[in-house]
Every structure is written in structure tokens, then in C-alpha cells.
């Protein structure tokens, strides 16, 4: 038994040992197995990690290369932009100089031309009248010849009575001469001609004297004075007119071309006239050769003083005189011809037609012809002057349209540079101003310039657009709505109105009280949702808004009740991109324009408004509306965020003028303090100072991304046209001019789906989190 027990114990012991060994072996095997398993798992994880690492590195290299490429491209663009800017600057300066030069030249030319034209037209009218009378007098020979002498003389008397009722002496002398000379019509006509000539000369002399007086100091004096006092006044008048025509010829390119062309044509006419003159001589010779007695010819020529040859002479003479006059006009000095050239008649030295000893009748005819030629030339000059005047008008019109185009392109370049756009709006005179008898001192020169009359003269300001008092809300919005598309595209936009109290800021931004004329804010709501509607097939949009007022240095949420707003703390913060947001403010979503408008109306009901002396519904706070438009591209998943800030600033005001007291005085002080801080920021930015005092006031903090930041900004400067506000108007315009010099750097707030995903992977890997491999 004992042995058995011992044996069993041994067996148990052995079994225990075997079990221990087996357990140890199994354990080791299990451990080995687990170790191998985990080692494998670890290896596979490591491989995966390496693969990810490699992938990320590859992507990094790719993006780095892409970044480098973009940077190079950007650098190239920056360089190109700066060269372009330099060129544009130089061209703008050049154009500016040219413009000023052209303006000076045009205004002096216009002055000169106007004074020349006025006096010349007067002279021409007088001379034409006189010439008409003389021509009338010279007509009768053929017609009157047929009539009985008595009737002829009666009619002559009647004519004289009608033509020159103001000269009874002249008429009497004509009557006397008619009586003395019997009933010969030629002698009667001669006497009438004499008396008319006297009158004509008398008037011409007056005009010449007038002209000489007119041209005093105009540079023509010397030439005028050199006109021989004994010269017939008609010639003196002609010389003066030609002198004026010369100045037009020299100054107006088109007139020069015209007169040169006329001179060329005149040379051809001269040749033709000379040829014509030769032909009748030959035919006359032929007639003489055929036996026509010379005495008979002279007899005939007495009865018919204007033979074809005489006519040819007259034409030749007329063309010659035109030639001299045109040469005179072109040179500006008398051509090298003797005075007798002007004085000699078509018969001088021409034995065929009477010669130097021709009778008085021919000499009268010669004078009359000369007067006719002068008259024709004067008429021609008159029409040329008219042409020049029209040409000048056209040039001025062209110049004006070119000036407007230049401003437009300049604005476009400034816009491309990122400059803040400034629109100026002039409101109409209000009832109080009209009843006070105030006068308007503000005027809109063109769509880019506004002028203000000041005691020191007219001051001109240039803006990206100027809206006159008749501009409608629709017109104003038309030029603004382009920016709303940018907000949808993911840019930050700010539209704000600045101006004196009562100048029309709220009218521009919000509209009138019953919203019959809605302003920019309600129109913007509609436009946002119209644009969203147009793009729903490509994008998914989310619109939300906040609405604040800055009242007595406190930011209040207008989407909550005034009591709750008073207890809320709203702080202005900036995100990584420098985008401003209001921490603690209620942000409400809106799915339609109507919903957004309802939110706006709810906010407006909580605003601080009061009646002042200057405005029955004056805003006592700055209104800030932020609309955030989030869009997701349905094709590539990229996302963009656009923020549209609409700001209706409270008006700058003088306590004395607005009649502010107690609480209103406190409000006014707070408004003025914030606007003054805004002025400091604008000054620092426009003069490119390193430190910009944004933190000095809540208003400047709110507007930090709109002034010198990442936003496309549009400022409305609202002004009153009345003289009683001219000081404030000038201040506002100077303020706005400074804003125009500020450059923003607007960038799209967009991220592609891929970049967002990669960023997420890198962050997770860095923190040691395990990632499933991409499918
Ligand atoms: N362009 C305009 N056409 C017609 N009426 C206008 C125009 N601009 C302003 N008004 C009228 O002038 C008055 C003052 O305008 P508004 O209240 O817009 O001035 P404001 O600059 O906002 O003043 P405040 O700074 O005191 O709030 C209002 O009755 C408004 O309807």
C-alpha cells in the first residue's frame, strides 16, 4: 500500500512536471504566436504608415511644386502689374498735362474765335445789307430799259424810298441829280449809286473803326494800323476780316486744309478764266476782220456795257482778287502786290473795253464789281467761320467724351489695383432749405466730377461715380449690384454710407420711410436670392445674417430685444484670414429674400432713431448688417464664404446746428468720436503709415477688414447741395477723397475639397491617430 502510494505520488509528480513542461511549452508557443501575429500586424501597419507618408510626401512635393509655380506666376504678375501701373501712372500724368494744355488752348481759342465771330458776323450783316442794296441798284439796265422813262424814274424814287428811308438828304440829292440830268436812266442810276456808295463807305468806315477798336491788343493792331487811312473803307474791312481769317487758318487745322484746298482750286479757276479771256478776243478780231466798223463796235459797247469779254475780265479779276485774299489769309501779311492791284478795275489798261480813260459809268461798274467780289468773299468767310465754329463744337464734344472715357478707364485701373471705390451722391434741396432761400452750390460736372462753389472759387472733386440730385435709387443700385455677385463668389464686400447728418445716407442705404423708394439694403436682399436662384444647379447655398448697432460706444444685437441686447457682450474678433466677425451676436439663417427682409425689419424696430433740427428721423447709431453667403460647388465640392457688410453710419454733426441736448448730446459726442477715429484710420491708411489705429474705437474695429483689409469696399459719400451746408460738404468730400487712396487686398475665401481633406489627414497623422487606407 505504502509502495503503491509512493508510486502514485511519483506518477502524480511526474504528471505534474510533464504538465508544467507542456504548459510552459504551450505558453511559449502561444506567446510566440501572439508575438508573430502582432509583429506581422505591426509590420503591416508600418508599411501602411510608410505608404501614407510616401503619399503625403508625394502630394506635398506636388503641392510645393504647384505653390512654387503659382508663386513664380504671381511674382511675374506682380512685376507685370507694377510695370503696367508705372506705365499707367506715367500715361495718366501725360494725359493730365495734355488735358490741361488742351483745355487752356481750347479756351483761349474759343474766346478768340467767339470774339472774332461776333464782330465779324455783325460786320458781315451790315455789309451784306449794303451790298444787297448796291446789287439791286446795279440790276436795272436790261429790265428797266424796256420801261417808259417816266415810269422808270418813278419806280427808282419808290425803290430809293423803300431801300433807304433813313437818308432823306441822299434821296433829295438823287432827285436833284435825276432832275438835272433829265430823264436818262443811266445818269439817274449813277446818282443813286453815288449816294448809296457814300452811305456804304460811311458805314464801312464805322465798322473799320470798330474793328480797329476791337482788335486792340490782340496782335493784329500793327497790321490794322498799317492800313492806309486813305484806303477805301471796304478794303480796310476786307483786310481786317482777312487778318481774322488768318488767325483761324493758323489755329484750326481743318480751316487750314480748307483754305489750302480753296487756293488750289482758285489757281485752276485762274487758268480757266485766262483761257476764256483769250477766246472772245479772237472772235472779236474775226468780226473786225469781217468788216464790222470799229466805231459801230464802240457804239454797241456803249449800249451794252457788259460784253462777253468784259465778263471774262470781271471773272478773271474776281479770281485774281480771290487769289490775293487767299494768299493774304495764308501768309497773314499782305502779299507782294501793289495797292493798285486792289484798286484797278477790269478795264484798266484794256483798250478794248475803254482803257485807263474809261468813262464814269465803267468806273462805277468797276467799283460795284469790286464791292460784289468783297461781298462774296465776306459771305464765303462767313460760311467758313460757321464751319470752323461747328468743327470746334465737334472737337469740344469729342474732347469731353474722351475725358469721360479716360476717367472711366482710370477708375477701372484703380479698381484693379484694389482701391476702395467711392461714389458721391447729391441729395435734392429739402423744403427747409428752399424756404430759407438757400442756394445750391454743388453741381455735377459729369458722371465722375462734382464741383462746390466756395468763397475761394470753384472746387472740383473726382470720384468713381457721381449721382446728381435727380438720380433714382435704381440707378444708384445698378452701379452697386456688381459687388453682390462678388460676395456670392466668396469675396468680402463692404458697402457703407458716410456724410453729414441729413445728407441722405439712410435714404441711399435703406430707402424712404414707407419703402416706396427702396435703397441698397432691400435691393441687395432681392439680388442675393436672384443670383442664388440662377446658380442652384451648380451650387448649394446657405445664407445667414447678423445685425448690430453701435450706440453710445456699445455694440448691440438688433436681432434680440433691447433689454436682452443690453445684457449681451458682443466682441469683435478676427479670424486667421483677418476676417472680422461679431462674437456673441445672434446669426439667423434666411432661405428667401422675404425672410431676410423680415429679419431686417425686426432689427430696424430696435434701432435708436430721434428727431433733430437737421433731420426728423436722424439715426443716432451706426447700423451694421453682415450677410454670410456660404456656397458649395456641387461638381468638385469646393466651398467658399462671402461676407457682405452693409453699413449706414450715423451722420457727422455739430451740436449747435442739430440742437442736441442731454442724451442727444451724449449720442452726438459718441458718434463724432467714432467718426473721428474712422478719420484717423483713413488718414493712416491713405498716407501709408505703418501703424493703423483700428483698436481706438469699436467702429474702426468693425470696419477693419473693409478699410485696408481683405474686402472689396464701396463708400457712398452723401452730400447736401445747399450753401448753408457747404463747409460740411467740403469736409465730407475731402474725407472721401482720402478714402479713394486706400488700397485693399481682397481675396476669395475658398478651399477645394481635396485640400480640406489632405489637411485633415495630416492633422490626424501628426497626432498619431490610425487611418484606414483610402478605398
Ligand atoms: N436722394 C434723395 N432724394 C429724395 N429725398 C432724399 C434724398 N436723400 C435724402 N432725402 C431725404 O432727406 C431726408 C434726410 O435723409 P436721411 O435720413 O437719409 O439722412 P441721413 O444722412 O441718414 O441723416 P442722419 O445722419 O441724421 O441719419 C429724408 O427725409 C430723406 O427722405
From TrEMBL:
Gene Ontology molecular functions: ATP binding; microtubule binding; microtubule motor activity
Keywords of the record: ATP-binding, Coiled coil, Cytoplasm, Cytoskeleton, Microtubule, Motor protein, Nucleotide-binding
Location, primary (coarse class): cytoplasm
Record-level GO cellular component terms: microtubule
Statement: the UniProt record of this protein carries the keyword Cytoplasm: yes
The UniProt record lists the keyword Coiled coil: yes
Pfam family, one: Kinesin
Gene Ontology biological process terms in this record: microtubule-based movement
Annotated protein name in UniProt: Kinesin-like protein
Organism: Albula goreensis
